[in-house]
Amino acid sequence: MNPAPPDSARRTAPLTIAVGALEAIQNAIIPALAIAFSGIGGSGRFLIAIAAGLAVIVIGTGMSYIGWRRLTYTVGEADIRVESGVLSRAARSVPYERIQDVSIEAKLLPRLLGLVAVKFETGAGGGEDIALKYLASTEGERLRQLVRARREEDHAAATDMVAAPMRDEAVEGEALFRMGPRRLLTFGLFEFSLAVFAVLAGVLQYVDTVSSIDVWNVDLWRGWLEEQGTTIARLGPYAQAAGAMAGLIGLVMIGMVTGIARIFAREWGFVLTRSARGFRRMRGLFTRTDVVMPAHRVQALVIATGLIRYRFGWHGLSFVSLAQDAESASHVVAPFAKLEEIAPIVSAAGFRLPDENTHWHRASRQHRTDTAILGTLPFLLAAIPVAILAPPGVVFIPLGLAVLAVGANLYAWEFRRHAIDAAQIFSTRGLLSPTSQIATRLKLHSVEVAQGPIARLRGYATVQLGLAGGAFAIEGVPLAEARALRAKVLETIAATDFSQLDAGRDQALSDSHAGFSANLAAT
């Protein structure tokens, strides 16, 4: 199929109307069932349910058709323009230079019809991003390549990309990280979740709205509990203990199954590849996302973990990027991995992990003391009314918690560290689940030394490092050391030509990737 001329307005795929019709059918099911099994309409409630369902389907399909007719997009020489709106028209124009990246998303229903949503990320997030729903998968990939080439002001390459069949970058690039079913199962076991009960509460709220059943009637549930309590009381203490244990085990199983289901739905088929263009991440069972992150857009790295998974050596790696990922400033590139699996990704992004040669600095001892004192204040204040109003001995509970807070804050100081070398700044914090940040000095846009009243009095500060895609703060740095760190960063910023930085970084990373591929082939 020959593409339309670059400057002509065109519509999204006609099958978008079919997606709207299928979504309307899906939206009509629950209201129709609710009416059919409620007291609305008496004996004629089934006819009312059918009529209501058909009305929802007709209206939804009609709105989908009108929306499709009224949405056009134009791929120009300098920008991409989108016009939409049924009653009021809106026209948006985004210059290519403002587009950080183009991502592709394929939810279940559109994917069954071979359609994808193409999102143009500007880095501002929210209403600043625009999306086209829906295009044929080949057309979506073609448009992504074209916009990326136009953004790089390579018109000749853009013409070749549009005319020639698209090659799969994931095949051309080296697979840096992937997760199979076994890894996903392990990941899911650490993602305990009781979200199913929130969904159940939403369903009960809906039933209460559309039916005559008052699900929030306290007397109704009290009567049911009393009835069940009478039955349980007849079983004896051993049976009651066994029942309580079975209920607890059931709750844990529900949480584990819910966590596993969420991980499989979000991370199925997870693969991260590195090619000359950058990093490409594909994942998702029902909603398949395909995101390409140019290497020069990576501002910093975040290595995080959890309370339990940390004890088993599992970590997650994210790129702090100009573009957003699901309304977050970070792109998750290795959500569940060992440090030895994270290291090649870090290296491919042009960063390095700290080693034995890294010279660490801890936060100020004054900051440690102040944090410990402030951490105990809520418990000490709570102890006053407890000592006055509560029975004797109860006051030792908040006092004991205050002692634990002091010990935890003093011990956490051992893990609050930072370091700087010729190329990077490192920071780590967290007692039970440490989080590390790594930023390259070349990508820092600003540096600020901030002090509150207590910090000014005690002689320490917070160093705020400006990143285009996120925040990087180092707390409790001794004032003299904070000023020296600021001077080093400002020296790097003053010596950096940011107009040439992206191109040079991309070329260096491309050469590095080529060398990595050659060494792998030789091996």
From TrEMBL:
Keywords: Membrane, Transmembrane, Transmembrane helix. InterPro entries: UCP026631 (IPR014529), YdbS-like_PH (IPR005182). It holds the Pfam family bPH_2. Residues 68-145, 419-487 form the YdbS-like PH domain. The keyword Membrane applies. The chain crosses the membrane at residues 12-40, 46-68, 184-207, 244-265, 371-389, 395-413. This is Putative membrane protein.
